Amino acid sequence: MKILVTGGAGFIGSAVCHHIIRKTNDSVINFDKLTYAGNTTSLAEIESDPRYHFIHGDICDQPSVARVLSDFQPDHVMHLAAETHVDRSIDGPATFIQTNMVGTYVLLEAIRAYWNVLDHARKSNFRFHHISTDEVYGSLGRDGLFSEDTAYAPNSPYSASKAGSDHLVRAWHRTYGLPTIISNGSNNYGPRQFPEKLIPLMILNALNGKPLPIYGNGKNVRDWLFVEDHARALHLITTQGVPGEKYNVGGNAERTNLQVVQTLCGILDELLETSPHRPHARLITFVADRPGHDQRYAVDTTKIRHELGWEPSVTFEDGLSRTARWYLDHASWWRDIG
């Protein structure tokens, strides 16, 4: 099968491309605008594989989307292209509305035109998988989990733009019959993540003896999902999921932000025995909280576990150690994008 991946040079997108090439017999067409968070270096290990193709393009550019669909004739589309950083959405929401909502609309319309003229067999087997976030559900209290039936209540410009794109995808399925699937993932971490995100930011700051800034009191809770586990889930949903359905994907690893950073500091203390900044936990600094900061996210993964047989395979501690080691071993990657 040929799978078109939008945003395949980003963090999760590159993990998806690696998974497809290394773990399946499918081919992948990576369609990416290469914004600040897109990095073709993340794909250097697979770029020479004949099953991998990179196309520089913008999902907001309908002729470019139509052209890549026509030229490569994908069997499935995995839509990961998005602006994702909450802090950036607070400072400049317009880009998030344009990419996440308008871009998804343009993509849906181009795909609908492409899908409508496929032969019966290909039309029946085609899937459009929209990859979203658990942030669309809002904030949880101390108890409970987000299920696929949880009402949407986004609280940041980022999550609102993703909620809007989710609704568009659902509407195109209900109105036009387009075979769409939506997945909502929890907080991802792992190799090749842009250093504005919590875990890589803490790693690089610790290496340089800089403060490790934590919002508020550090008690905000997230469910952490290793990116390679997520990539495996996303391919499974695309190829075996049911059109019109939603699937929550989580790591079953709830941690406060403070716990995450403290655990990471312990890992770095072991890996960097000669560092003058040990113990790294002394670098932890509490800063003014983010506006509208959601208290807790946690997802119920019962559906994907029972229906598709997926569950996370990497523990948080192992995944965090693997992530730290990757950044220590790949300084050229993050120095080039700094």
TrEMBL record:
UniProt catalytic activity: dTDP-alpha-D-glucose = dTDP-4-dehydro-6-deoxy-alpha-D-glucose + H2O
Pfam families documented for this protein: GDP_Man_Dehyd
Species the sequence originates in: Telmatospirillum siberiense
Cofactor list: NAD(+)
Protein name, UniProt field: dTDP-glucose 4,6-dehydratase
NCBIfam families, alphabetized: dTDP_gluc_dehyt
EC number: 4.2.1.46
Domain NAD(P)-binding: 4-322
Keyword NAD: yes
CDD domains: dTDP_GD_SDR_e
